[in-house]
Amino acid sequence: MPDSRATRSDERTGTILRAALELAREVGYAKLSIEAVAARAGVGKHTVYRRWSSRGLLFLDAVLSLDTGGLAHRDTGDVVADVREVMVKAVDLLGRPPWGPLYQDLVGEAQHDPEVAAALNRRFIEPQTADTLARLRSAKEQGQLAPDFDLDLAFDILSGPLYFRLLITQEPLTHDYIDRLIRALFAGMSPRPDNAAANGSR
Amino acid sequence: MPDSRATRSDERTGTILRAALELAREVGYAKLSIEAVAARAGVGKHTVYRRWSSRGLLFLDAVLSLDTGGLAHRDTGDVVADVREVMVKAVDLLGRPPWGPLYQDLVGEAQHDPEVAAALNRRFIEPQTADTLARLRSAKEQGQLAPDFDLDLAFDILSGPLYFRLLITQEPLTHDYIDRLIRALFAGMSPRPDNAAANGSR
């Protein structure tokens, strides 16, 4: 039989996280307060503070409690297709409510709160980086990537432009953007010697 | 002769912006208030509100009033060197106080405040994008870039990984990182046909 005290505590945690998400969507993260979350969840504010030492850490747990639909790479043997699949899922997540705006607020908070920044990396960014790295390492071993490609940069290169669009230019994240990015990142900016030769011979 | 009323107004604006920067560095942006800035500048809070409708827009003006040392591309004829020069200047700016932490707070604020996001793009990001585009367009015309390289992606590709490191992983921004990025972005992730042939023949 489950420990009923632990179950009640888990249920209460779930209620508080759902209340935080509801309120963040209603009033915006800037106006979210622990007091208001506690009132919405029907608990005392000390119940919230016992679990989360700051509004930012509560919000982090709330956002990361949402289903991301899975951002793990498959290995179909075609690295470009497998990378594209995950990037398309990522833009569908980042570019739309509820996840997109909530995640944007979370990253905003991480700029002022080092604890939120550290927890976001440990719980969300690092697992994705490791998964991407594993997929690309296998592709490299199969000769599908440039033999000197710097794998440690891979996640920065693939996701940096997405984050740039999400956080800086705030232009829409589309499947077309992903297709263009993948084409450019795989091909590289320099002329290919074979292309140059082909162009020269025309 | 200069209009002395306009000069006094400019001086007052400068005093307020300096007060905002001093306070942001002392107490952090999260605790910055218009009241405190007004008190530090020795003016009434309505004097501040007459010029800036929000704390975020005041902070934007304050950060953008700092000298960035110039982020325009030279055209020495070597596109890789010219791009590297600007990226190195950018990481020196973004990776160190005072600019780095202040800019990070500004981007954080842009996540919650659409007016700040729009002004940041119009006044800081768009001019840099245009300058980068002009340099790369000239390189493309001279055959130093892949003939099918998607110029509209160039700024996202070059700066996205920097912003990713600054805002997400918060790992140090170094010259070595720039060198590795430039190498990877110019070469591309796919094997080069000539390399593949060379590897195959060994």
From TrEMBL, chains A, B:
Keywords: DNA-binding, Transcription, Transcription regulation. Residues 10-70 form the HTH tetR-type domain. It holds the Pfam family TetR_C_11. The keyword Nucleus does not apply. The keyword Hydrolase does not apply. GO terms for molecular function: DNA-binding transcription factor activity; transcription cis-regulatory region binding. InterPro entries: Homeodomain-like_sf, HTH-type_TetR-like_transc_reg, HTH_TetR, Tet_transcr_reg_TetR-rel_C_sf, TetR_C. Gene3D superfamilies: Homeodomain-like, Tetracycline Repressor, domain 2. Residues 33-52 bind DNA. It comes from the Bacteria. This is TetR/AcrR family transcriptional regulator. It comes from Saccharothrix syringae.
